[in-house]
Amino acid sequence: MENKQELIQRLKEQIIKQLKLEDKKPEDIGDHDPLFVEGLGLDSIDALELIVLLQQEYNIKLKNAEEGQDVFRSIDTMADYILEHSAS
Amino acid sequence: MQITSAVIVREGSVVKDASVVFRSTETGSAFLNAAYEALEVLYPRFYKMDLLSKTGTIAADVLLKQRTDLEQWRPEDTGMVLSNRNASIEADVQYLEASKAYPSPALFVYTLPNIVIGEISIRYKFKGENAFFISETFDADWMHWYVADLMQRNLLKVCICGWIDVVDERPEACLFLVEQAPSATGHHFTAENLRSIYNKDYGK
């Protein structure tokens, strides 16, 4: 598995592609920026797309919807979740 | 009742009140993205939309950009009535194709034609009556009757109505701004004027 910084970079590229954030570049997204409302300004449909992305690209299923609030707080928290669940 | 403004998106052009405001040799999505940039539409949700909603967002933006009195329109008095031939076929096919791997929620939400009304209404905070009709061709008589009825019954004071369709990645829109208040400019709101504006050829 790649290191966390490489994973963060890949996640940013995948999120831009999957969520059609064509006006954004990976460097526009801070590792700790909030993904929803302020920050990247994602909405509830985007949250569903992030769940699909986790499943499609990392074969990780969220255990429940509430878990998403913590997992999708930022790119950094997403990367931590992926590293933790890929290792198990 | 007056048609106070009209916007046509067709054959690589965006035309407002008979003046070409954007022209490009690009087609489909590339044309809409180029129009978005050139016309400074400035609405970040644009890139997430399907082609039908992108077309509607650009047409509505051009239709309303110069209006300084938008804030004075009561949301409940402002509505939309649109029509087309192909419903949301482009988004439907895209969703079907994507679903062979993983169903995409972001594609699924555009698999109804009236979503374009929702996108425009969210942006401008319109809360009035709305409807989306399917017909073979632009039915000016029906559009006139339906919108005039809403206005005569005071259900709407302002209405964006017209035709918006995308098939084979070819966007086409003709949106009319119809207002109940008397106006010194524009055309009388009649089926004949709707038809005449819709049918005007602005070349390629």
Automatic annotation (TrEMBL), chain A:
Signal peptide: none annotated. Residues 5-86 form the Carrier domain. It comes from the Bacteria. Coiled coil: none annotated. This is Phosphopantetheine-binding protein.
TrEMBL record, chain B:
This is 3-oxoacyl-ACP synthase. It comes from Niabella pedocola.
